[in-house]
Design a protein that fits this description.
The complex is a heterodimer of chains A (147) and B (797). Chain A is of the alpha+beta class and 147 residues long. Chain A has a single domain, classed as OB fold (Dihydrolipoamide Acetyltransferase, E2P). Chain A is built from four helices and ten strands. In chain A, the strands form two sheets. Chain A has a five-stranded mixed sheet with strand order 8-1-2-10-9. Chain A has a five-stranded mixed sheet with strand order 3-6-7-5-4. In chain A, 37% of the residues are buried. Chain B has six domains: 148 residues, Four Helix Bundle (Hemerythrin (Met), subunit A) (Up-down Bundle); 55 residues; 180 residues, Histidine kinase-like ATPase, C-terminal domain (Heat Shock Protein 90), CATH 3.30.565.10; 152 residues, OB fold (Dihydrolipoamide Acetyltransferase, E2P) (Beta Barrel), CATH 2.40.50.180; 124 residues, OB fold (Dihydrolipoamide Acetyltransferase, E2P), CATH 2.40.50.180; 93 residues, Rossmann fold (3-Layer(aba) Sandwich), CATH 3.40.50. In chain B, the strands form seven sheets. Chain B has a six-stranded mixed sheet. In chain B, strands 27-19-20-30-29-28 form a six-stranded mixed sheet. Chain B has a six-stranded mixed sheet with strand order 21-25-26-24-23-22, with no helix packed on it. In chain B, a hairpin with a 5-residue loop joins β14 and β15. The chains are: A alpha+beta (147), B alpha+beta (797).
């Protein structure tokens, strides 16, 4: 993990990071086709070339209220188990390098974050929460426990 | 080369590639049993495959290597360097032989025995000698072979194996290109015509279409690969059951999606088992019934549009209607009353119901608790259907309809609450606007009902089903999409608008979205906008619209058809050329046609028009010439006669629910009535056909007798036939018109010859002779006119 590249973003006001290999690209979000009868954190479908991306709001998925935070007009495109997702966050920051292995801290990060995080990594811009794409996408467990 | 053989070569190479690393590792460490296993598997498979193809030398070699390796695996023999070398020599030889087989050549004789001896001999000295010999002979073999191989590129079609992933990637790349091209096309249109760009762009479009076709074909496989296993299956099964069955497979060339082939493998196998087990009788029984001793099973595949139909038929005992019906009643699937109303065909479809199995005893061949209902379910899952037809004691026939691919389907795009959704075309029965009188929209309790062809059909508002906010849409502004579920249940889906219709490429959805349970996939429209594909079956099930028995057979359809005619009279509404709103009974209307105005012929006493190479009378034309290039026509038929009615505008089919008020003072009008609060004149069909109707001339051509001579045969005859006549030459035939050269006619008339049929006289000189009713022989128009006139008036030209 050490020295690996990270895509840094602000989610619900906190600095978070996705492992760069999970991230395909960062796109400008165009029209989003909503999907009725899906959980709130699934915002809909958007097209990236001929691919349909499922748009997720990370804040809602983790258990925050999205309206309380700003929204970046870009989204992080990440793939998990063959499906591509567009992740919406407060702001997409930069590419950073991890300078430590992910670790936990005494007292934890709080229940909501613990659900979606692999631990804390040190970067050049300070400590960052490393997110786990799989649990973020499942969303529901996080939602269930946050509720 | 034979497909199977090509497969064999490809498989052998592939395995060899995979195990070549193992071989090297094994050489380094002969005691490594894991490596030994994989090499053993290789020679074992080669040996097994050789059995199919009659390659005795290959079989012998691989068998010897297998024996030696088996000894090692069992611990009877210690693998040492010599053994490894011998085995490797054998594998090398196999490779060379496979190459030769692929090239379709003969392998040079000799050399095998030494290799085999090398494997078998335990003595080290003997081995060394043998192996070196083996090697050298092997080398010479490849040397001899080398020139032969270079001359190889004959008709052998080369093939490679590719991972499906890669194909998918290429496919989506091409889809991207198509989208980019659509975008570009849009921009080009906006920019106006630019010849320098439009030309190359057209070329790009053509190339892209070609590439897309080719890519689609890549995913296709001949269904023959699936069928090829069936003769063996049939042989084994019939053997096991003491029956004699001959199988005939047809249509193996039909291609369909590789994945689809996998999906239908089990259902087809099941149906074949079923046919042999339950359908075809034992030879003695067949002889007693006067049938051939050998049963006949045929499997046929046909492609029609984007569906493939596979028909499995046998000449066995067939299905007994009463037996099926009794059992269904006994199982509580249908009631006695329902039984009485069902036709034979409907009864037979009951065998696809869950829990139904006709065999009195469960045998280990077809009855393993898995019935035809599972077959049906599996087929429906991929968008297919199955039905059975049968003549008792003579034959039965299962028809499977399956889509060509899993990923491309025909779909209708509908709109509700500003959002679009796609519905697979296969479910759609009909689309009706809710304002139509045929559709009586009512609310019973919480359920909405519509009346469709005299049946109450549940109606689901799409925005409700999707939990979308209910729009301000008035009930009668909805468009009803009538959906027929695979089990025959019908329901109406109310949507706000119909958008477009076409083939869509279905892409999978993320699991989190699939959890909603009402979507089957997504697709991108031409403008790149994503659209969700609805899972109609799940939506119906969720709203309890599919009956509990999950499938009553369709039995209300033809009943409805019978009552409908009696109670409702429907009519086609149109505006004629004088601007009057008219209606004509729908039963009379066959088709709505559009023709070029030039196809109208006003030269005769009545106008006519040519449609589908038949000349039909045309009514309803305005007095002044028609200015438009095209003409809309209603093609009417009273069963035998046909005529055309020109209209300015076709409106729609309506139900005549208001009383008809007969009027007698106007020709051709039967009555006036109100439709949507406006008066409409109902055309009197009887009068219309009495006056103008005639059977299409194409079917009933009048006969014409021509004068003798070469000119008449080669020049006159084609003209006469094109004017709608058949030429007669037999002296005893009774003609409708005779053409004479004027001089011959006058000679004949001078001899007091009687002329039974009207006569058309042709003269040689262009100038007419005063007082003589003749036509110049090259006056085409005059001749045609004369012939036509003769036909209508029966008089003499």
């Amino acid at each position: 993990m050490k020295n690996s590249l990270l895509v840094m973003a602000l989610i619900a006001g906190r600095r978070c990071a996705f492992p760069a290999p999970d991230v395909q690209s960062v796109i400008e979000i165009g029209t989003i086709t909503p999907i009725p009868r899906t959980p709130d954190f699934i915002k809909g479908l958007t097209a990236m070339r001929s691919q349909a991306l499922t748009v997720l709001d990370c804040r809602t998925a983790i258990g925050f209220t999205e309206s309380e935070f700003p929204l970046d007009h870009r989204a992080i495109v990440a793939s998990h188990q063959g499906d591509a997702y567009a992740l919406r966050v407060d702001a997409i920051e930069d590419i950073g390098t991890a300078v430590s292995e992910p670790g936990s801290i005494p007292g934890g990060f709080g229940a909501q974050w613990a659900n979606v995080s692999k631990g804390l990594v040190e970067t050049h811009v300070g400590p960052t929460l490393l997110l786990d794409l799989g649990s973020l996408i499942e969303g529901e467990t996080a939602l269930g426990e946050a509720a | 080369m034979d497909d199977l053989l090509a497969d064999f070569v490809a498989e052998t190479r592939e395995m060899l590639e995979a195990s070549s690393g193992e071989i090297v590792a094994w050489e380094a460490n002969p005691a490594d049993t894991a490596r030994l296993d994989s090499i053993f598997r290789f020679v074992h498979t080669v040996k097994g495959n050789c059995g199919f193809f009659d390659f005795p030398r290959l079989a012998k070699l691989s068998h010897a290597a297998e024996d030696a390796l088996a000894d090692c695996r069992a611990g009877r023999r210690e693998p040492d360097r010599q053994l490894v070398t011998a085995v490797l020599a054998v594998i090398d030889r196999i490779i060379v032989m496979v190459d030769v087989i692929e090239a379709g050549e003969e392998f040079p004789e000799g050399g095998d025995e030494e290799l085999i001896a090398a494997l078998e001999a335990g003595e080290i000295d003997a081995l060394d000698a043998a192996v070196t010999h083996g090697h050298s002979s092997n080398d010479t073999a490849s040397d001899q072979n080398a020139p032969a191989q270079s001359s190889q590129p004959t008709a052998v079609q080369r093939s490679i194996r590719l991972p499906v992933d890669l194909l998918d990637r290429v496919m989506s790349g091409v889809s991207d290109m198509v989208l980019a091209r659509n975008d570009l096309a849009h921009r080009l249109r906006q920019a106006g015509t630019q010849p320098t760009i439009d030309g190359p762009f057209e070329r790009l479009t053509t190339i892209l279409n070609d590439v897309r076709d080719a890519i689609t074909r890549m995913r296709m496989q001949r269904i023959g690969t699936l069928f090829s296993a069936f003769p063996r299956l049939v042989r084994d099964l019939s053997h096991e059951l003491g029956k004699q069955v001959m199988i005939d497979v047809e249509g193996g060339d039909v291609e369909l999606d590789r994945e689809m082939i996998e999906m239908i493998r089990d259902p087809l196998t099941h149906i074949i088992r079923n046919s042999i087990d339950h359908g075809i009788e034992k030879p003695s029984d067949r002889l007693a019934l006067g049938k051939r001793e050998i049963g006949f099973l045929s499997i046929t595949a046909r492609q029609s549009g984007n569906m493939i139909s596979i028909v499995v038929s046998d000449d066995g005992a067939g299905l007994t209607e009463s037996k099926v019906a009794d059992k269904a009643v006994a199982l509580g699937m249908i009631s006695e009353a329902e039984r009485a109303e069902m036709g034979r065909d409907q009864v037979l479809q009951l065998i696809f119901q869950p829990g139904f199995s006709t065999a009195e005893e469960v045998s280990n061949v077809s009855g393993r608790g898995v019935g035809l209902d599972v077959v049906r379910q599996n087929l429906e899952r991929v968008g297919g259907t199955i039905s059975v037809s049968s003549t008792e004691g003579v034959a039965s026939q299962f028809t499977l309809q399956i889509p060509l691919t899993l990923s491309i389907i025909a779909a209708l795009t509908v709109e509700t609450g500003d959002q679009r959704f796609a519905i697979p075309q296969s479910y759609i029965e009909e689309i009706i606007h809710a304002s139509s009188k045929a559709l009586d929209f009512t609310q019973v309790g919480e359920t909405a009902l519509v009346t469709f062809r005299d049946n109450r059909v549940p109606c689901l508002v799409l925005s409700d089903a999707l939990d979308l906010p209910r729009s301000e849409f008035a009930e009668d502004e909805f468009t009803m999409v009538m959906l027929r579920l695979a089990n025959g249940d019908l329901f109406a889906l109310a949507v706000e608008a119909i958008h477009s219709h076409g083939d869509i490429v279905v892409k999978p959805l993320a699991p989190a979205v699939m959890k909603a349970g009402i979507y089957a996939g997504s697709t991108l429209l031409d403008d790149g906008q994503p659209v969700l594909l609805l899972d109609v079956t799940s939506i119906a099930a969720e709203n309890n619209l599919a009956s509990d028995l999950s499938s009553r057979v369709i039995h209300d359809e033809f009943q409805a058809g019978q009552t409908e005619a009696a109670s409702i009279s429907r009519a086609m509404l149109f505006t004629d050329f004088s601007g009057r709103r008219c209606a004509i009974r729908l039963e009379l209307v066959q088709r709505i046609e559009t023709i070029q105005t030039t196809a109208v012929d006003c030269s005769g006493s009545h106008p006519r028009a040519v449609i589908d190479s038949a000349i039909l009378p045309l009514v309803g034309l305005p007095n002044e010439p028609i200015e438009t290039e095209k003409l809309r026509l209603l093609r009417l038929s009273d069963g035998s006669g046909q005529l055309l009615h020109a209209v300015r505008e076709v409106e729609e089919a309506v139900v005549l629910s208001n009383p008809l008020r007969p009027i007698g003072d106007e020709d051709m009008i039967e009555a006036v009535t109100l439709v949507d609060g406006k008066t409409v004149s109902l055309i009197d069909g009887h009068e219309l056909f009495a006056r103008y109707g005639e059977t299409p001339e194409a079917t009933d051509k009048p006969l014409c007798r021509l004068p003798e001579g070469e000119w008449a045969r080669t020049i006159l005859a084609p003209l006469v036939s094109s004017a709608g006549y058949d030429i007669v030459s037999a002296p005893d035939a009774v003609e409708d018109v005779t053409i004479w050269f004027d001089d011959e006619y006058e000679a004949a008339a001078a001899l007091d010859t009687s002329f039974p049929a009207p006569v058309v006289r042709l003269r040689d000189a262009p100038e007419a002779v005063e007082g003589s009713p003749t036509i110049y022989r090259y006056d085409r128009d005059g001749l045609v006119k004369a012939l036509r006139q003769v036909r209508h008036t029966g008089g003499q030209a």
